[in-house]
Design a protein that fits this description.
By secondary structure, the protein is an alpha/beta fold. The protein folds into 2 domains: 5-69 and 371-426, Urease, subunit C, domain 1 (Roll), CATH 2.30.40.10; 70-362, Metal-dependent hydrolases (TIM Barrel, Alpha-Beta Barrel). It has helices at 45-50, 90-103, 108-124, 138-150, 174-188, 208-220, 234-243, 250-256, 274-283, 291-296, 304-310, 328-341, 348-355, 357-362, 389-396, 401-411; strands spanning 5-14, 24-35, 38-44, 58-68, 70-76, 127-133, 154-158, 160-161, 194-200, 225-230, 264-268, 286-289, 313-316, 380-383, 417-422, 425-426. Strands 5, 6, 7, 8, 9, 10, 11, 12 and 13 form a 9-stranded parallel beta sheet that branches. Strand 9 (194-200), helix 6 (208-220) and strand 10 form a beta-alpha-beta unit. Helix 3 crosses helix 4 (138-150). The chain is globular and about 65 Å long. The two termini are 21 Å apart. The chain binds guanine (GUN) and zinc ion. Zinc ion binds at residues 74, 76, 229, 267, 319, 322.
Length: 431
């Protein structure tokens, strides 16, 4: 582990949920002191620097913003090559583009190289943690775990479970899928910052038997995660009703198989009855709001206000390759626009929260990541607004912190990222 070091710049983070009195704390000239990879203190540079021992190195990111690393609650690493594929909605998009791309992961070398590239792109976008889909191949999860371990990332993944309604080449069996998942849990779950997620793709691609066994496995490992999709498109909903006629709702399919609980993350959750949202809230399940994907695939508009009122945990997901960017900044601005169409709004405080501390809460990791509270793991990003002249000009006319933050969130993207730090250490080659 590394000794103490300090980082100086405009520092911004959320102290808590904006609905529960949480604030955006802002230090125009702030100092973040990191020791042993964790936050030691945070405050105005002027005061903290006076007490700082002279041998502690200070990196001065003058003119730049220092934010907690972004957290992506839902993304598919095998879908890098699927981004921006033309013309289909979810179910046809899966058949036409996604499954063929995932078939390439039968080759472990391809999986290994893609896992490395994915994480490097993710870090270049300022994302420091993610809940990630692999493919049905156990070695695809292993490849991502290995690459994340080398980079010391806090990351969740798992082998996809899929035993029907997909190409033969991507099918496991109920029993083999669970056996492989168990082996991966025993090898990787809790290994430094890595966590396992039991990953049934979505209800249509698993038999009831596979979902049963997945629920049984989850019950055996209460601190393991569950990761899937729920109620993304209308056609999917109709298909689920045909395949599971005994369940009253799509949400009940997962609940009936013991897959709805704390540490379960469901992407999308758009086409749902109020009761199902309440069911998720009381189960402690979380939603990954994926606006870029929802717009790109024409899936629908997520009801964020309803989820907030119901008290469901929500974080943002890029959902690449349904989403068109690995940048949580771009995902935030898609979220703002999608909510405008829904007659709702996304205040800058909530937008930052959803991409950082709220996402950490959705992933039951807010005791470790998500903001600069003392003791947390020092994952953060340095954003330089001067890298986008339009943003720089817009900021020059902003006279409140709130307006500045909003402009940064709406106009920012990966061009702004000067450096991404993982537990206080730089993760990008060039600064
Ligand atoms: N539902 C089932 N599989 C997928 C997937 O790969 N992407 C998205 N967006 N939805 C899904
Ligand atoms: Zn997805």
């Amino acid at each position: 582990m590394s000794g103490p070091r300090a980082f100086r710049g405009r520092i911004v983070h959320c102290t808590g949920d904006p609905d529960a009195g949480g604030l955006v704390e802002h230090f125009e000239d702030g100092l973040l002191l990191v020791d042993e990879g964790r936050v030691r203190s945070l405050g105005p540079a002027e005061t903290l620097i006076k007490n700082l021992s002279e041998d502690i190195p200070v990196t001065h990111w003058k003119g730049s913003w220092i934010l907690p690393g972004f957290i992506d609650c839902h993304v598919h690493y095998p879908q890098l090559d699927v981004i921006a594929s033309y013309g289909e909605k979810l179910l046809d998009w899966l058949e036409t583009y996604t499954y063929p791309a995932e078939e390439k992961f039968a080759d472990p070398d391809f999986a290994r190289v893609t896992a490395e590239q994915f994480l490097d792109r993710m870090l270049a976008n300022g994302t420091t943690s993610a809940m990630v889909f692999a493919t049905v191949h156990a070695h695809s999860a292993k490849a991502l775990f290995s690459a994340a371990h080398e980079r010391n990332l806090r990351l969740w993944t798992g082998k996809v479970l899929m035993d029907r309604n997909c190409p033969e080449s991507l099918r496991d069996t109920a029993v083999d899928g669970i056996r492989e998942s168990r082996e991966l849990i025993d090898r990787w779950h809790g290994q430094d910052r890595l966590q396992y997620a039991i990953t049934p793709r979505f209800a249509p691609t698993s038999t009831a038997h596979q979902l049963d066994l997945a629920g049984q496995l989850a019950t055996e490992y209460p601190d393991v995660y569950i990761h899937s999709h729920l109620a993304e498109s209308q056609a999917e909903l109709e298909w689920v009703a045909e395949l599971f006629p005994d369940a009253d709702t799509y949400t009940d399919v997962y609940r009936d198989h013991r897959l709805l609980r704390e540490r379960s993350i469901y992407a999308h959750c758009i086409h749902m009855e109020d009761d199902s949202v309440a069911t998720m809230a009381s189960a402690g399940a979380a939603i990954a709001f994926c606006p870029s994907s929802n717009l790109f695939l024409g899936s629908g508009l997520f009801d964020l206000d309803r989820a907030r009122v119901a008290g469901v945990r929500v974080g943002l997901g890029t959902d690449v390759g349904g989403g068109t960017s690995l940048s949580l900044l771009r995902t935030v601005h898609d979220g703002y626009k999608a909510l405008q169409l829904k007659g709702q709004s996304l205040a800058p405080e909530r937008a930052l929260y959803l991409a950082t501390l709220g996402a950490a809460r959705a992933l039951y990791a807010s005791d470790r990541i998500g903001n600069f509270a003392v003791g947390k793991e020092a994952d953060f990003v340095v954003l330089d607004p001067a890298r986008n002249l339009l943003l720089q000009r817009r900021l020059a006319s902003a006279d409140t912190v709130r307006d500045r933050l909003f402009a940064l969130l709406m106009l920012g993207d990966d061009r702004l990222v000067r450096q991404t730090y993982i537990m206080g250490r730089p993760a990008l080659k060039e600064a």
